[in-house]
Structure formats: C-alpha cells, structure tokens
Amino acid sequence: MKEKLFGKTLNELQVLVAELELPKFTARQIADWLYKKDVSSIDEMTNLSKNVRELLTEKFEFGLIASTKVQESSDGTKKYLFPTIQNKFIETAMIPERDRKTVCVSSQVGCKMGCLFCFTAKQGFQGQLTAGEIVNQIRSISEAGEVSNIVYMGMGEPFDNLDEVLKSIEILTSEWGFGMSPRRITVSTIGIIPGMLSFLENCEAHLAVSLHTPFNEERRKLMPVEVAYPIEDVVAEIKKWDFGRQRRVSFEYIVFEGLNDSEGHVKELAKILSGLKCRINLIRFHPVPGTPLKSPDDKTIQHFKDELNKKGILTTIRASRGQDIYAACGLLSTKELNN
Ligand code: SF4
C-alpha cells in the first residue's frame, strides 16, 4: 500500500520533497492541494510538472478516505462511518445549529478507558488513528468547507493518542493547512494529566474535561481513570493555566438518575471548581444497552442546573441531538462490526 500524503505536516512534506530532490517550495504547493483545494488525486496538482506528479505517484497516494455509510437524523444531525484498520470503523457526527456546523471527530478506534456509561468502551481498544484519519473526518464529509467548529468528543480518548491529535490540530490551524482558529476547536478528555499538560503547552484549542461527579469513590465506579488521575488533581493542574481570556475550559457532566444530581454534588462541585473561570455542560444520558444507568427527567436536570448557577457556576444543558440515529458514540460502528 502506498503512503498517504494527506495528514502530513509542512515539515514532513519538506523532508519528503528533499528526499525526492525536488525544490523546497514544492512542499508548500503540495500542502496547498492537500488542505486548501477541493481535489483528491495527485494528478490534479496541476502546478506541479507531469514528471513531479509521476515521481510522487510512484510512492504516494493523495490519501482521502470516503465514508461507507451516512445516517441523517430528523433534526439534521448526520453520522458518518469511515473505514479504518483491520475492517473496523470509526464514527464522525456533523451537528448543524443555526449558523454553525460542528463536527465531532473520533481520535481512536474503540477505547481502552472503560467508562461505565460509554458504548465505545464496550468495543475495547482496537488501535490509534493517524492525524490524516482524524483530519479526513472533516475533509471527507459532504459539509467539508462549511465546518465552523470541531470537537474531539467522538470515539477514543484524545490524550491517549496525543501526538497524532496534536498533529491533526497543527494541520487544521496552520496557515499552510486549513487555517482555522484554534478557538473553534475543543478537545475533550477524561483527565489524563500528562497528555492534558502537553496539550495545554503546545496548542491553543479549548479544553473540555469529563467530570460526571466530584466524588472520588463514585467517579472511580464510573470512570476507572479516576484511580490514576483523581479529579481534584486534574482540576488543580487546570487552575495553574489562564482560562480567563480567549481560551476556555468546560466540564462535561452527564446526569444520571439518583446518582450524581443531589444537593451534595452541587456543593462539592462549587467547592472543587471555586476560583476557576469555567462552564459546566450538563448532558442528558442516552441509555446504552447493558448499563444500569438512567437519565433523570427534564425537571430534575433543570433544577440541578439552577442550583449550580446559584452557586456562581455558569451551567448549561446541552441539547440532545440525533437521538433517532444511534447518536451515542460507538453504537453505529458496533452495529456495523456485528453485521
Ligand atoms: S467516554 Fe471517552 S474515554 Fe471513556 S470509554 Fe468512552 S470514548 Fe473512552
């Protein structure tokens, strides 16, 4: 199989053209075709001579990957399925909202983190995605070119695939790449501290942390990562960074009936987040097969939100989208695997 050009950074392209003894500026020309133009083959890179195109084609392919399935919800949310290694699949969601089109990308094939409430966890870990496969989820959907926001909240834990995730953000935000503002990108983690610190150091995108409960015992049951990286340590690290200006930190909080929506949770959340400029996004739980967890009714979620707001924590309830198309991440690809 030929090596893919799509997914290479400008530096990597420069090394590649040097090896082929081509002029240095060829690297920028190739980056332009890969990330700024609507073409999909080396042969369409028409400002490169025929000889150069042939030379490239001997070793490389352009490298886009087409989706094999698309499902559209009645609310306009779409879910794309892309093939990856060993006949496995990854999922990408496109969520349209008024003047925005947000794409939710996967960063791994399956996941090893074992969160109790997550369907992707049930697939186990199958492999890492390359930067090219991550960026392809934005480039190879029908809405490519209209994407306004990107969230790394699909399958996988981004900081368990840190290098490829950072490389994908470099391609998305560099002037030689997609030229997007890092303020339009949010990376969501369950709190892998070393990866999170490296991310905060090396890029400007927003951070979202899956919190789900402020109590260690409870969080350990929901998210095994709590054993290695307790939530108070995660928050203590975050408090060392400046989130007061353009960069934002938010906390994702799936509300589970009778489990993490009490007055005690409100108080403890206010305590651990005090002094941090942040937001909590409350998420309704979409029951996944095989878990005992349930979603509370809307009134309970609204009350929980009001109580957090009263404590001075900016809290919103995320709208449920795409419920009719296996919206919970991991459901569609699992179904495909089992076909
Ligand atoms: S919630 Fe995220 S980190 Fe946890 S198992 Fe699912 S994909 Fe992995």
Give the helices and strands, then pairings.
Layout: E1 3-4, H1 10-19, H2 25-35, H3 50-59, E2 60-61, E3 69-72, E4 78-83, E5 89-97, E6 100-104, E7 108-110, H4 119-123, E8 125-128, H5 131-139, E9 149-152, H6 162-173, E10 185-189, H7 193-202, E11 206-210, H8 216-222, H9 225-228, H10 231-238, E12 249-255, H11 263-273, E13 279-284, H12 298-310, E14 314-317, H13 331-338
Helix pairs in contact: 1-2, 5-6
What does this protein look like?
Helix content is 35%, strand content 19%. The protein is α/β, with parallel strands linked by helices. The model has no long low-confidence stretch (mean pLDDT 94). The structure holds iron/sulfur cluster. Iron/sulfur cluster binds next to helix 4.
- Oligomeric state, counting identical vs distinct chains: single chain
Shape, per Cα inertia axes: elongated
How far apart, in Å, are the first and last alpha carbons? 27 Å
Unreliable stretches: none
Q: Which molecules other than protein and nucleic acid are bound?
A: iron/sulfur cluster
How many DSSP H or I helices? 13
Features:
alpha/beta; ten-stranded mixed sheet; binds iron/sulfur cluster
Give a quick rundown of the structure:
It is built from 13 helices and 14 strands. The two termini are 27 Å apart. The protein is elongated.
